[in-house]
């Protein structure tokens, strides 16, 4: 898989899609933003021509303020929610050397009162009362704040938001409590292998480089040590904010229903006065991995039973080459998963399961190129050989040289992706755009991540030249290293051993020769070419309609009448009485589908690159299949999947590998977060039939290859298929696709319809009135505990749903403010409705270092206080909550897949209330 790691958020992963062509500019230049007819002394420059997708109906304006702040304004008269995001180009890399985590701590404290709005929950309460929400994150270079709110209340929310950057209080009374919140957040991550490995990577570079810092912070770094050293942490917060929260380091994005002129007036008034301290943009020209940190081998002990190989090369910052993107080109080839790829060869030898390759962001001044693989048991014994094959493939790329047709294909893929990109939800969109303002010109801010214009073989060769054994760092993560380590990382306690890679091995890798099994990818036949939008059928219904109802299948159909993009979503539930009979059958259904996906991977990867994805998983009722993306060649992928499903031949080597990986995943559940355990066990208790992880593990030994081979035809022998076909398709083509699915299963797998009595539905357990039940499970991995408290109400009905959601709306902000902010029960505090199998209730989820019985007592106390506050609530406040709930419920899906998921939820739950939101 091609992988790009964004520098805007730690571990936020996305496929890099960057492309352009002559057609790209011809299509987008037709839809530019309106000119600004105003002059304001606070505004230095106005950008009216911002390149946007032809399908994007919003209008944009870019502003550069005299104080250095850059802003993008988005006017969308149809938006349900307004939103804003502000990104400060300062993060944990700028923490002072003696106070780790102060950038992150500053982020927390800004939410707790300002001079203009001193009440510590003023901001969150205002948002909650107006159907809003907020969040923030801190990474190495960025602190990013964002919110959404009902469109009528953008100005009020924006005013409160702006005070974060003008006059925060950093109130002494909040300081100690919020240190606990940061510490709780760190505790949550303490046993998370991703966080542990990231900090280990930082710790094994140059200790004097800012990259090595511990960015999260905890009680030790923010309270204990500063107090011991006579440091006033509040004064340090004020100093940090005063020093770095400068307008020239800020990017702002605001989206609302207002016109661009109205938004401009609003933003200028609120943000034009943010002080410009002319802080230099932090740059880190020296790479954290210098000569002494290269050619090193790390053996790392994880928390979970995982086996991973991480191969890392330091490379220069490629950001300025975003229109050529040599890292993307090489990641596309090295991370490819089709025939002749590096992954294909390594899988054929039984050494790996997955492979990710590509550039990984570091900070302004340095990057990394990574090749990461998930190892099999045998692969763990062949690490040197795996890396040898990596260098063989890299050498092939050097020998053949940069290929313009590969670059052009990436360009074409991204042109299509930008032209038909889905509309984003406001909150995520403003947050993202605010961060991008630090990297791209205002004119290209929306298109920059898609732009590929210049084929630069010299840049590709420059990066290739960095992918040599003399620059490599290797880390292998495995439980097998327990007892073999001699070092411990300071902040997470990760055990590891570091040793230099021998000259003999380096020489072997350096002499990697030609391997005839490696091939460049074939031209991608899944790239869509037909983008026609089918005309709406006469009297097209506004909700899915049942167009076929037989013993074999039930077909729901909905032609897209909102988004008008050349995309469709195909959802299938294959009901089978054999899929969940007992733990053995459940295991066999899982392994069948995992092996099926594994065998389809080389074929389906090209479709994935071209924007056509599928998902296949076992459920308590059978099997779920979805195919989503461009509709042009969707039927080709669907046909291949069903054909493979009906005629599947199991590879014995892959069976052993995937069965072993499945056993590890069952064992690894013990290391999941405590609150996830609580939610899992509650689901088991409340569901009529459910097999536990322990039952599945015990039964897995009984699953043999012959038994699985015999099970597959049994599973497919009788099926009932319930389907939703939704998007840019016609009723005729929908019926045709369904007929193809049925014909292939009946003719090739000899499938017959389920008997009516075999079509079962599992029920929810009814909790007796006045009942109080406690289920406890001990976890040895985490120091924290998790609790879910569930108050079952009744069956779902429109009236009862409304009452439950209104109550959840009323208590949501007070719950967070009381239990998390004031009482500091833990970082994770949640309240809301729980719905399953047609039944619903109120739930609280908390993860904390405090004992579960104490958490339960605090929830009970909160509910008792809530009862009184609701009784005393005046009509004005009550109406605000009603209005906020109405706005939340009327918030429409922003893309086809989201609307389809809403409809599918109604179908699979057999509620069929398609207009529930109205």
Automatic annotation (TrEMBL):
Q: What is the first-listed, main subcellular location in coarse terms?
A: membrane
Return the InterPro entries for the record. Answer: Metalloenz_LuxS/M16, Pept_M16_N, Pept_M16_Zn_BS, Peptidase_M16, Peptidase_M16_C, Peptidase_M16_M, PqqF-like_C_4
Q: Where is the Coenzyme PQQ synthesis protein F-like C-terminal lobe domain?
A: 806-904
Chain ranges of the Peptidase M16 C-terminal domain:
234-412
Catalyzes what? Degradation of insulin, glucagon and other polypeptides. No action on proteins
Coiled coil regions in record: none
UniProt keyword annotation of Cell membrane present: yes
Q: How does it assemble?
A: Homodimer. Can also form homotetramers.
Q: Which family does it belong to?
A: Belongs to the peptidase M16 family.
Name the chain's protein: Insulin-degrading enzyme
């Amino acid at each position: 898989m091609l992988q790009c790691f964004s520098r805007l958020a730690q571990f936020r992963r996305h496929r890099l899609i960057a492309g352009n062509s002559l057609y790209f500019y011809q299509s987008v230049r037709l839809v530019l933003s309106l000119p600004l007819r105003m002059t304001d002394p606070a505004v230095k420059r106005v950008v009216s021509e911002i390149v946007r997708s032809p399908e994007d109906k919003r209008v944009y304006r870019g502003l550069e303020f005299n104080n250095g702040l850059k802003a993008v304004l988005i006017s969308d008269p149809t938006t349900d929610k307004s939103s804003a995001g502000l990104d400060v180009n300062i993060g944990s890399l700028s923490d002072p050397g003696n106070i780790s985590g102060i950038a992150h701590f500053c982020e927390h404290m800004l939410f707790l009162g300002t001079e203009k709005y001193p009440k510590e929950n003023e901001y969150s309460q205002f948002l909650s009362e107006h159907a809003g929400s907020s969040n923030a994150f801190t990474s190495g270079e960025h602190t990013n704040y964002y919110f959404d709110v009902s469109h009528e209340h953008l100005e009020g929310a924006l005013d409160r938001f702006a005070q974060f950057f003008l006059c925060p209080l950093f109130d002494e009374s909040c300081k100690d409590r919020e240190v606990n919140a940061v510490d709780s957040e760190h505790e949550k991550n303490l046993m998370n292998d991703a966080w542990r490995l990231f900090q280990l990577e930082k710790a094994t570079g140059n200790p004097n480089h800012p990259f090595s810092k511990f960015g999260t912070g905890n009680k030790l770094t923010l309270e204990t040590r500063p107090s011991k050293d006579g440091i006033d942490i509040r004064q340090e917060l004020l100093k940090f904010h005063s020093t770095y929260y400068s307008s020239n380091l800020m990017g702002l994005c605001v989206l609302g229903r207002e016109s661009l002129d109205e938004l401009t007036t609003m933003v200028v008034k609120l943000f034009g006065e943010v002080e410009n301290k002319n802080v230099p943009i932090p740059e880190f020209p020296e790479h954290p991995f210098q000569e002494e940190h290269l050619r090193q081998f790390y053996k790392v002990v994880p928390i979970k039973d995982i086996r991973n190989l991480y191969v890392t090369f330091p490379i220069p910052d490629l950001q300025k080459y975003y229109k050529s993107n040599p890292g993307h080109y090489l990641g596309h080839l090295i991370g490819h998963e089709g025939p002749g790829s590096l992954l294909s060869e390594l899988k054929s030898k039984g050494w790996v399961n997955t492979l990710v390759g590509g550039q990984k962001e570091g900070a302004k001044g340095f990057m990394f190129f990574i090749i990461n693989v998930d190892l099999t048991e045998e692969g763990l014994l062949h690490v040197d050989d795996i890396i040898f094959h990596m260098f063989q493939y890299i050498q092939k790329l050097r020998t053949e040289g940069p290929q313009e047709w590969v670059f052009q294909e990436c360009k074409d893929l991204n042109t299509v992706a930008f032209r038909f990109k889905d509309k984003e939800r406001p909150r995520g969109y403003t947050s993202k755009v605010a961060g991008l303002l630090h990297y791209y010109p205002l004119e290209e801010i929306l298109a920059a991540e898609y732009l590929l214009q210049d084929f630069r073989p010299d840049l590709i060769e420059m990066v290739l030249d960095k992918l040599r054994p003399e620059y490599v760092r290797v880390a292998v993560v495995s439980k097998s290293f327990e007892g073999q380590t001699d070092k411990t990382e300071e902040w997470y306690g990760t055990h590891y051993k570091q040793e230099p890679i021998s000259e003999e091995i380096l020489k072997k890798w350096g002499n990697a020769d030609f391997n005839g099994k490696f091939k460049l990818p074939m031209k991608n036949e899944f790239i869509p070419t037909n983008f026609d939008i089918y005309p709406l059928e006469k009297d097209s219904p506004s909700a899915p309609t049942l167009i076929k109802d037989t013993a074999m299948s039930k077909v729901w159909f909905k032609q897209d009448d909102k988004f008008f993009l050349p995309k469709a979503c195909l959802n299938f539930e294959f009901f089978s009485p054999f899929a969940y009979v007992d733990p053995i059958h459940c295991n066999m259904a899982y392994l069948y589908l995992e092996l099926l996906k594994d065998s389809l991977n080389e074929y389906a990867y090209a479709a994935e690159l071209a924007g056509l994805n599928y998902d296949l998983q076992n459920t308590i009722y059978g099997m779920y299949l979805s195919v989503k993306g461009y509709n042009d060649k969707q039927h080709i992928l669907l046909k291949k999947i069903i054909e493979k499903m009906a005629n599947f031949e199991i590879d014995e080597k892959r069976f052993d590998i995937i069965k072993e990986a499945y056993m590890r995943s069952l064992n690894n559940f013990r290391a999941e977060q405590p609150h996830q355990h609580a939610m899992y066990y509650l689901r088991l208790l409340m569901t009529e039939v459910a097999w536990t992880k322990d039952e599945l593990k015990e039964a897995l030994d009984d699953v043999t290859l012959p038994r699985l081979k015999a099970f597959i035809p049994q599973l497919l022998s009788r099926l009932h298929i319930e389907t939703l076909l939704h998007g840019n398709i016609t009723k005729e083509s929908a019926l045709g696709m369904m007929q193809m699915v049925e014909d292939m299963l009946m003719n090739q797998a000899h499938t017959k319809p389920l008997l009516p009595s075999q079509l079962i539905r599992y029920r929810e357990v009814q909790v007796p009135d006045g009942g109080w039940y406690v289920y406890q499970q001990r976890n040895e991995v985490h120091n924290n505990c998790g609790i879910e408290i569930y108050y079952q109400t009744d069956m779902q009905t429109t009236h009862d749903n409304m009452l439950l959601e209104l109550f959840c709306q009323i208590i949501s902000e007070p719950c967070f403010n009381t239990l998390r902010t004031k009482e500091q029960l833990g970082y994770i505090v949640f309240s809301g409705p729980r719905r399953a199998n047609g039944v619903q209730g109120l739930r609280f989820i908390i993860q904390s270092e405090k004992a579960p019985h104490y958490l339960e007592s605090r929830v009970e106390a909160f509910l008792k206080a809530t009862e009184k506050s609701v009784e005393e609530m005046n009509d004005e406040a009550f109406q605000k909550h009603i209005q906020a709930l109405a706005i939340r419920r009327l918030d429409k899906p922003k893309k086809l897949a989201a609307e389809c998921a809403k409809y599918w939820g109604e179908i699979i739950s057999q509620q069929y209330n398609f207009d529930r939101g109205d």
